[in-house]
Amino acid sequence: MSILVTGSIAVDHIMVFRDRFRNHILPDKVHMLNVAFHVPSLRKSYGGCGANIAYNLCQLGADPLLLGTVGQDFGSYAGWLDRHGVRRDHVLELADAYTAQAFITTDLDDNQITAFHPGAMDRAHEARLDGVADALRVAIVSPNGKRAMQEYAAELKTRDVELVVDPGQGLPMFERDELRELIEGASLYVVNDYEWSLTREKTGWDVEEITARVGAVVVTRGERGSQILEKESVRDVAAVPAGSVVDPTGCGDAYRAGLLYGRAQGLDLDAACRIGSLMGALKVSVEGPQGLDLESGAFAERYAAEFGAPLP
Question: What architecture (CATH level 2) is domain 2-8+49-97+125-307?
């Protein structure tokens, strides 16, 4: 039984401006802005929520199916995924588009100016679910093109699969009724604490109304751990302290990989969330959303050390 991961596949170009934007942007001239920032350093990171989740599942020894779209420039990224065991059977390459890309410039005050080109991601619905013949245990709809998220969620709800819906940063795209339709009938609804507040505001549903419509809600809260909300209970899952904080980028995706892995192994939701917490802590200690490199058996050893019990 396989884990299906649907979501974005993207490339991040991260640049650092060794000064402060405020020293070069004149407030009374913003209506006619024309500035250039000298950025001597450039770091290219492979990312995208779908690819990040699939990558981290492979680090846990799983063999996920990644469903998404990329562009004509996918060559080097394809090689990266191949080297790390991420299958590309269901990754659709569009010859007339570019892979989704973000161009992020950060100044010395950690302010950021970002330009995002969705490229092939906006046509993710062209990567069809009906081409996935594998028996599925768990599937996730993570941030992607809006139409793809809607169509994937609707179809997966008709299949015998545990469906995890995670709108992430794509949540603002959905109007009230669209978000209600996306959520209702999901096995799990996974969001961070800000997105959880936004969900209630946009849907007009309170906690009881949402938990009546899904199997459970998992809310991630950073260093405060995560929370499981079900019809009759609310339970906290403690965060795992990170050895060092190097880069939080992709930490949420690593958590979701751990959660999916646990559920695919038949573990209860609390145990699956603990695996997610540990994956998040390990990820934050390395640079880049796909920077985690686990040796065989290393995760099980760390899990046993952290929780005082063997990995289920």
Answer: 3-Layer(aba) Sandwich (3.40)
